[in-house]
């Protein structure tokens, strides 16, 4: 998902799986809170990333972790329904 404006600090989000990359990057599609954002260069061009503080520690698609937070590309985020 691409947002018109950066998500504000404290925004509640769900981290979605990548439909083209198996279960990645976060297979359980966790809920979390935006801590901060920045603009990075990707193969698709500039893209926002957000530091997400997970509600519960998470393991990534490789089984590494658990992680309390992670940097996540904007395309994997959607507003949380909670």
Structural overview:
There is one protein chain. With 82 residues, the protein is an all-beta fold. The protein has one domain (12-79). Helices cover 0% and strands 49% of the residues. The protein has strands at residues 12-15, 31-42, 45-58, 67-73, 77-79. A 5-stranded antiparallel β-sheet has the order 4-3-2-1-5, with no helix packed on it. Strand 2 and strand 3 form a beta hairpin. The model has no long low-confidence stretch (mean pLDDT 91).
How do the strands and helices of this protein lay out in sequence?
Layout: E1 12-15, E2 31-42, E3 45-58, E4 67-73, E5 77-79
Antiparallel strand pairs: 1-2, 1-5, 2-3, 3-4
- Count every beta strand, where a strand is a DSSP E run of 2 or more residues: 5
Main sheet? 5 strands, antiparallel
Distance between the termini: 18 Å
Main sheet strand line-up: 4-3-2-1-5
Percent helix range = under 10%
Structural domains: how many: 1
Beta-sheet strand percentage? over 45%
What is the helix tally? 0
Quaternary assembly: single chain
Structural class: mainly beta
Mean pLDDT: 91
Which geometry do the CA atoms define? globular
- Along the chain, the helix and strand elements come as EEEEE
Radius of gyration: 12 Å
Low-confidence stretches: none
